[in-house]
């Protein structure tokens, strides 16, 4: 436990962290990777280059400081990050390295303002925060390994089938090389894939949502090609699209993630997706169809046009069920889209449309997609009076602000 003086000092740094948080975390990564380049085998290089990881860590550090006297309040955030850490292979021995370089970065950025007293208080606080993460993650590692069909670390899977779903999205069907059982998962969860790409010095690890219902003898991921050489995200997605063929072996972690469909509820569920954000929604939609045939579900997907709209046939097949309704939004439909009536609405998902078509008063909402899409959906639902506890969303990558 922390003494009151330490708590007071840490909480007094909250305004400084708000102002300099991103500068501190940017410097932190520079220092840590400079001294421990082997950690680049774990961290997402693309998020580093884009600054997303720095912003996310700054937010986490700020929250930890603000709630240092009540860490229970941020336990959901700890668990969310813990899922990512478990899927990446972050272990207890990594935490002292992180703590050392975080303190160095605080001192580096704040200069004389980071007195010995402040640094000492933060060292104590970090120890408590690290212990919370290590404890939560230890349970997650044990659960992942000991569950039926589970395993520790990364397991070898073969690409049994590769299916082009649209101009930009391809699905990969993955089965274990050892032919043994695979762990079940909750609809909405993801797996991590670890890749050694020829010519690359470090390993690349990426998370991909599972895009099929649980209970199968395979996992399916549906990957969007992130085009453009300057785009660091494109390295892994392009490699999967261009170089990974049927019969190849991939290293995969057990399913993880806390963005999951609550199948204990019977309330109507609304699934909203933009672009490749439909992948966890497909898992949720198929699960409702499989195990909750009486539960009303509305599936809303926004895409540029039919050329990039993946898995549409699967959704249309499920729409034949009495409890499933679907709507497709295209903001730039092609002439062929118009001719064949491939979409329901031209344009974007708006608050007024949701108000007219969706039972916002008693439904649970799940959404995922590009950040502008997510911001717009979150704003619309909030303005329509949907309660916060009925709004659920997932970021592809580090957490960002929706307001």
Automatic annotation (TrEMBL):
<dbReference type="InterPro" id="IPR009050">
    <property type="entry name" value="Globin-like_sf"/>
</dbReference>
<keyword id="KW-0349">Heme</keyword>
<dbReference type="InterPro" id="IPR039261">
    <property type="entry name" value="FNR_nucleotide-bd"/>
</dbReference>
<dbReference type="InterPro" id="IPR001709">
    <property type="entry name" value="Flavoprot_Pyr_Nucl_cyt_Rdtase"/>
</dbReference>
<feature type="site" description="Influences the redox potential of the prosthetic heme and FAD groups">
    <location>
        <position position="84"/>
    </location>
</feature>
<dbReference type="InterPro" id="IPR000971">
    <property type="entry name" value="Globin"/>
</dbReference>
<feature type="region of interest" description="Reductase">
    <location>
        <begin position="149"/>
        <end position="403"/>
    </location>
</feature>
<keyword id="KW-0521">NADP</keyword>
<feature type="site" description="Influences the redox potential of the prosthetic heme and FAD groups">
    <location>
        <position position="394"/>
    </location>
</feature>
<dbReference type="Pfam" id="PF00970">
    <property type="entry name" value="FAD_binding_6"/>
</dbReference>
<protein>
    <recommendedName>
        <fullName>Flavohemoprotein</fullName>
        <ecNumber>1.14.12.17</ecNumber>
    </recommendedName>
</protein>
<feature type="binding site">
    <location>
        <position position="190"/>
    </location>
    <ligand>
        <name>FAD</name>
    </ligand>
</feature>
<keyword id="KW-0285">Flavoprotein</keyword>
<dbReference type="InterPro" id="IPR001433">
    <property type="entry name" value="OxRdtase_FAD/NAD-bd"/>
</dbReference>
<keyword id="KW-0479">Metal-binding</keyword>
<keyword id="KW-0561">Oxygen transport</keyword>
<feature type="domain" description="FAD-binding FR-type">
    <location>
        <begin position="152"/>
        <end position="262"/>
    </location>
</feature>
<dbReference type="InterPro" id="IPR012292">
    <property type="entry name" value="Globin/Proto"/>
</dbReference>
<keyword id="KW-0560">Oxidoreductase</keyword>
<feature type="binding site">
    <location>
        <begin position="395"/>
        <end position="398"/>
    </location>
    <ligand>
        <name>FAD</name>
    </ligand>
</feature>
<comment type="similarity">
    <text>In the C-terminal section; belongs to the flavoprotein pyridine nucleotide cytochrome reductase family.</text>
</comment>
<dbReference type="Pfam" id="PF00175">
    <property type="entry name" value="NAD_binding_1"/>
</dbReference>
<feature type="active site" description="Charge relay system">
    <location>
        <position position="137"/>
    </location>
</feature>
<dbReference type="InterPro" id="IPR023950">
    <property type="entry name" value="Hmp"/>
</dbReference>
<dbReference type="Pfam" id="PF00042">
    <property type="entry name" value="Globin"/>
</dbReference>
<keyword id="KW-0520">NAD</keyword>
<feature type="binding site" description="proximal binding residue">
    <location>
        <position position="85"/>
    </location>
    <ligand>
        <name>heme b</name>
    </ligand>
</feature>
<keyword id="KW-0274">FAD</keyword>
<keyword id="KW-0813">Transport</keyword>
<dbReference type="InterPro" id="IPR008333">
    <property type="entry name" value="Cbr1-like_FAD-bd_dom"/>
</dbReference>
<dbReference type="InterPro" id="IPR017938">
    <property type="entry name" value="Riboflavin_synthase-like_b-brl"/>
</dbReference>
<feature type="binding site">
    <location>
        <begin position="275"/>
        <end position="280"/>
    </location>
    <ligand>
        <name>NADP(+)</name>
    </ligand>
</feature>
<comment type="function">
    <text>Is involved in NO detoxification in an aerobic process, termed nitric oxide dioxygenase (NOD) reaction that utilizes O(2) and NAD(P)H to convert NO to nitrate, which protects the bacterium from various noxious nitrogen compounds. Therefore, plays a central role in the inducible response to nitrosative stress.</text>
</comment>
<feature type="domain" description="Globin">
    <location>
        <begin position="1"/>
        <end position="138"/>
    </location>
</feature>
<comment type="similarity">
    <text>Belongs to the globin family. Two-domain flavohemoproteins subfamily.</text>
</comment>
<feature type="active site" description="Charge relay system">
    <location>
        <position position="95"/>
    </location>
</feature>
<feature type="site" description="Involved in heme-bound ligand stabilization and O-O bond activation">
    <location>
        <position position="29"/>
    </location>
</feature>
<feature type="binding site">
    <location>
        <begin position="206"/>
        <end position="209"/>
    </location>
    <ligand>
        <name>FAD</name>
    </ligand>
</feature>
<dbReference type="InterPro" id="IPR017927">
    <property type="entry name" value="FAD-bd_FR_type"/>
</dbReference>
<keyword id="KW-0216">Detoxification</keyword>
<keyword id="KW-0408">Iron</keyword>
């Amino acid at each position: 436990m922390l003494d009151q003086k330490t708590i007071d000092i840490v909480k007094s740094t909250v305004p400084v962290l708000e102002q300099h948080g991103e500068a501190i975390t940017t410097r932190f990564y520079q220092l840590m990777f400079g001294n421990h380049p082997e950690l680049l085998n774990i961290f997402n290089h693309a998020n580093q280059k884009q600054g997303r990881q720095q912003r996310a860590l700054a937010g986490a550090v700020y929250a930890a400081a603000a709630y240092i006297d009540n860490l229970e309040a941020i336990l959901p955030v700890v668990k969310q990050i813990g899922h990512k850490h478990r899927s990446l292979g972050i272990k207890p021995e990594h935490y002292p390295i992180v703590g050392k370089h975080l303190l160095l970065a605080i001192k580096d950025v704040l200069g004389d303002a980071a007195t010995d007293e402040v640094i000492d208080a933060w060292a104590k606080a970090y120890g408590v925060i690290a212990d919370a993460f290590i404890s939560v993650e230890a349970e997650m590692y044990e659960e992942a390994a000991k569950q039926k069909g589970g395993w520790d670390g990364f397991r070898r899977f073969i690409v049994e089938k590769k299916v082009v779903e649209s101009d930009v999205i391809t699905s990969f069907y993955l089965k274990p090389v050892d032919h043994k059982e695979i762990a079940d998962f909750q609809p909405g969860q993801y797996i991590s894939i670890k890749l050694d790409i020829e010519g690359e010095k470090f390993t690349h690890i990426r998370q991909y949502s599972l895009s099929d219902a649980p209970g199968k003898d395979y996992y399916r991921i549906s990957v969007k090609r992130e085009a453009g050489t300057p785009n660091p995200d494109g390295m892994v997605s392009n490699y999967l699209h261009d170089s990974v063929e049927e019969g190849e072996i991939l290293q995969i972690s057990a399913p993880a993630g806390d963005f999951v469909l609550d199948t204990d509820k019977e309330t109507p569920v609304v699934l909203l997706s933009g672009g490749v954000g439909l992948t966890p929604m497909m898992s949720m939609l198929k699960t409702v169809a499989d195990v909750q045939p009486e539960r009303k579900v509305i599936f809303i997907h926004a895409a540029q046009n039919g050329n990039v709209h993946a898995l549409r046939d699967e959704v249309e097949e499920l729409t034949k069920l009495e409890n499933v309704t679907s709507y497709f939004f295209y903001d730039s439909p092609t002439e062929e889209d118009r001719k064949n009536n491939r979409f329901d609405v031209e344009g974007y998902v708006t608050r007024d449309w949701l108000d007219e078509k969706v039972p916002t008063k008693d439904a649970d909402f799940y959404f995922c997609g590009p950040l502008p899409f997510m911001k717009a959906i979150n704003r619309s639902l909030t303005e329509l009076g949907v309660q916060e506890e009925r709004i659920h969303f997932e970021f592809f990558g580090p957490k960002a602000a929706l307001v």
